[in-house]
């Protein structure tokens, strides 16, 4: 096995690391120490690896990624929130999405000015509707 830090991308085209992440047996490795760093790579969905990384993150254990998703959804960083709302959360299993319901409800019913401007309240409402 390689050091866990080898699983963090080092540049915007680091598809080699994405390949390693796809092959991980999450039952044999504690990915938690690098979750925040991986999420940093989805702060801008225009970075070439970001969309693929969202799909990979969606396969991780819920208890590993939910705290970080909640942090992003409440961060006030509209680019990062966009990555989570439009690219990561749609890829999650429905039971994981349900765990995000309080955060989605907050965005849908009491959005900040920037969340309203970016129409995140509409995205959140659509996700909430898809859970019923």
UniProtKB/TrEMBL annotation:
User: Which domain of life, per UniProt?
Assistant: Bacteria
List, for all copies, the residue spans of the domain called DUF5071.
Answer: 7-128
CDD domains, alphabetized: Cthe_2751_like
- What is the recorded name of this protein? DUF5071 domain-containing protein
- Organism whose genome encodes this protein: Paenibacillus albus
Q: What is the lineage of its organism?
A: Bacteria, Bacillati, Bacillota, Bacilli, Bacillales
